[in-house]
Amino acid sequence: MDKLAIIGGNRLDGEVRISGAKNAALPILAGALLTGEPVTISNVPHLMDVTTMIELLGRMGAEATVHEGMSLEVNAARINNCDAPYDLVRTMRASILVLGPLLTRFGHANVSLPGGCAIGARPVDLHVAGLRAMGADVEIEDGYIRARAEHLIGAHIVLDQVTVTGTENLMMAAILAAGETIIENAAREPEVVDLAHFLNAIGGCVSGAGTNRIVIEGVEHLRGAEYEVLPDRIETATFLVAGAITGGRVCAKRTRPGDIQAVLGKLRETGASVVTGPDWVELDMQGRRPRAVDISTAPYPGFPTDMQAQFSALNAVAEGVGAVTENVFENRFMHVSELQRMGASINLQSNTAIIQGVEQLTSAPVMATDLRASAGLVLAGLVAEGETVIDRIYHIDRGYECIEEKLQLLGASIHRIV
Predict the structure, then answer these.
(1) DSSP-assigned letter for residue 246
(2) Are 344 and 380 in contact (CB under 8 A)?
(3) Helix (H), strand (E) at residue 128
(4) Which DSSP category does 330 fall into?
(5) How far is CA 182 from CA 179, 197, 198, 219, 322, in A?
(6) DSSP string, 142-173
(7) Which of 343, 386, 388, 348 is nearest to 365 (CA)?
(8) CA 224 to CA 220: how far, in whole Å?
(9) How far apart are CA 52 and CA 124, in angstroms?
(10) I need a surface site. Which of 11, 305, 312, 405 has the fewest CB within 10 A?
């Protein structure tokens, strides 16, 4: 099993090209099931989760062709299997996103209950309740969601809580349903907006994406299209924190600064100079030690839960005390014990980590427990004295494209070992 070995102490300096967003590419790939005409999706990141989704589509009979630069052509004209089996779904939560497209286009779907990172409860009941409101017969048995519907009918759906995958699944189910569907308390994330733009590109009629009220007018037929996935805001923010934690300068290119305003505000609070352009962000710490910041995670446009571990690592070496409150997932502090092994001073109080910054972390063998926790450990390794070895990095390969190569280009001493 691969590991990452990092020798800390190097100040990062340089430019990094941001990849396409995993959390936008996955629902868009699932959305390719909605049409029998070829769909070409560009700026797709080369990640394990993307590979898993492509394999899942292939199991169903879709043809996926990889072109230069990870542009994917998906042709779902000959779907012959509407099952999403456990052996694939167990590794990736986003596999549940095939449920809505399969059900609305083919009238049935059998999707295994999903897996993914062990960061807390992410129940499927909101997906199920929404599909039932649209007229589907949905049962959960033997570890599978089994859904049937001769034809879905538009409905007024009020989500009990904000859910990104739930919003996306119901958007895709509604796109071929009869009549109008309204989703209230919808997720507002940029990835949800990107999916809506894709659905409109293939002939759908979606409005309101980016607000908490999305309206979908059902259509009878969808066409093929070419579509480019938006840049990854979490990768962008992670590299900017890497610059801040090392006292360095990092310019993230081919990104969208508007998608990470909450993060940029906190980075400025650390004392960093942050300058933005139309498609770039530059952070310069000018060799200074960052100041500790308080963060409290919330659905978009609040501070993203996917950046909590990275800011926990930053606070671990910052000047002062920072409180990190996790409001989205109840089990997303598993990286804390690993940071403590490296000398971090962290006191967990319910859903809040009180972090007293120390001047120096020390290297230690640590283990990644989930995708974003692994990113936090990489950041800690960049500033720890000695060599830090991070095990179980298959987690980080699920969400960061070529992270060690990109960090090497910025001056980090990091390499992959077996």
Answers:
(1) T
(2) yes
(3) helix 125-133
(4) T
(5) 10, 17, 18, 15, 40
(6) TTEEEEE-SS-B--EEE-SS--HHHHHHHHHH
(7) 388
(8) 14
(9) 20
(10) 405
* Tens place of pLDDT per residue across the chain (418 aa): 799 999 999 999 999 999 999 999 999 999 999 999 999 999 999 998 899 999 999 999 999 998 887 799 999 999 999 999 988 888 787 889 999 999 999 999 999 987 543 433 446 889 999 999 999 999 998 889 999 999 999 999 999 999 999 999 999 999 999 999 999 999 999 999 999 999 999 999 999 999 999 999 999 999 999 999 999 999 999 999 999 999 999 999 999 999 999 999 999 999 999 999 999 999 999 999 999 999 999 999 999 999 999 999 999 999 999 999 999 876 678 899 999 999 999 999 999 999 999 999 999 999 988 888 899 999 999 999 999 999 999 889 888 999 999 999 999 999 999 8
Nearest Cα to 316, choosing from 366, 270, 365, 368? 270
Residue 212 zone, left/alpha/beta (φ > 0; ψ -120 to 50; rest): alpha
Catalytic residues: 117
Report the distance separating Cα 78 and Cα 143, nearest Å. 27
